[in-house]
C-alpha cells in the first residue's frame, strides 16, 4: 500500500483532516514524537536534543558539535526503518519531509490555509488573541521554512514542487480535504512498485551510512543507488584527498555498500571550513567573563584546539544562554557586574547539574575556592592561566560528562 506524508501550517485544521483520513483508510499514524523517540533510542541522544533539529534556531555551538546534523541523520534512519517495515502509514509533521523525494509510492500532501483563516481557527480552537496567534504562526512558519530549506533546498515550505497534493483546507473544508487525500491513493502514480521499494532501500542505506559517519564526527551529504554510495563534501577542507580516503575507509565495509564515490558540492568553495567533531574534547564551552578582550582571545585559542566556544560577558546572559542552549562546560569568572560568578555557579548546578563548571578568576580567595568546590565546581583555576592546563582541565571535564552519559 502507498504511504502518506502530511506537512501542514499551524492552525490549518490538519489534525481533523488526518483523523478522517485514518478513519477512512485504516492507516496507522506516525507522529514526530514517535520518530524522535526512535531516533533517540537508536542514537543515545536525548529526545529534546533531537527534537531541537526541527527548530529554525541553531545552537551557537553547532559549527563544532554538529548536533543538528547528527540529530537529522538519526531521524532519517528512524524514518527509513519505518518505511522498510510497513507501508500503510501516515506520517504527520516535520518528519514527513525526511524521505527522499524519489520514493514514488509516498503520497506527499500539504495542508495549508490563508492567514485570516488560520487566525480564525486559532481563536476558535484555542481562544488565542490575534497578536498571540500571529506570533505563534510566524515562529512555526519560520521553523518549517528552515526545515524545508535544509532538507529540500526550498525556502518556501508550501512550494508546489515539494508535494503531490496541496489542499487549501480553509477553502476546501476538512471533509473534502480528507476525501481528496483518500481519492489520490488510487492514483497509479503512487502505487508500490519494485522500483519504488528499491528507492526506499537506497534511502535506508544512505541513512545508515550517514549515522555511521556522524558517529565518527563527520557531517557529510550521503546518497545511495543500487549499492553505490555517494559522499558529497559541502565545506572547504585543506586536505581533501585525505578526508576522502578516511570517509571511504569508514563506509566501504558497511553491509549493503558495494561502491563508494566521493566529491565536492556547491558549498565546497565557500569560506566555511569543514570540521570533524572531536569527541575527546568538549564542543560546547561557554566562556563567562566581563573582560571582553580576554574572553574573545581565550575563545580563539580554544577553537584552535578544536573546542567550540561561545562568549557572554555577564552572569545574567550566561543564565539565559544556559536555559536556551545548554553547554557542556562553563568557564566562569567570579567578579562580574550584576550577578556574580558564585551565584551563577549556584543556579547552574541547581538547575543543570550535568554542566561542568570551571572557575577561572583573577580575584578569588581561598574561601571563594572552598565555596565554589562545595557548590559543585569541577575545578578552580587562577588567571593568568596556562592554555595547556586549561585545555587539559576541559578535556577532563569532558571525560566526566561522557562517562556519565
* Radius of gyration based on Cα positions: 24 Å
Q: Count of DSSP helices? A: 16
Main sheet summary: 5 strands, parallel
User: What is the CATH T-level topology of the largest domain?
Assistant: Rossmann fold
- CATH architecture of the largest domain, by name, is 3-Layer(aba) Sandwich
Q: What is the CATH superfamily of the largest domain?
A: P-loop containing nucleotide triphosphate hydrolases
Shape: globular
List the helices and strands in order: EHEHHHHEEHHEHHHEEHEEHEHEHEHEH
- Tell me the domain tally: 3
Structural class: alpha/beta
Provide the spatial order of strands within the biggest beta sheet: 2-3-1-4-5
Mean pLDDT across all residues, rounded?
94
Q: What is the helical fraction, as a range of percent?
A: 40-55%
CATH class designation of the largest domain: Alpha Beta
Termini separation: 41 Å
Beta-strand residue percentage:
15-25%
Number of strands: 13
Protein name: Response regulatory domain-containing protein
Keywords: Phosphoprotein, Two-component regulatory system
InterPro entries: Bact_response_regulator, CheY-like_superfamily, P-loop_NTPase, Sig_transdc_resp-reg_receiver
Domain Response regulatory: 284-398
In short:
The strands form three sheets. This protein has a five-stranded parallel beta sheet. It has a five-stranded parallel beta sheet with strand order 10-9-11-12-13, sandwiched between helices. It contains 16 helices and 13 strands.
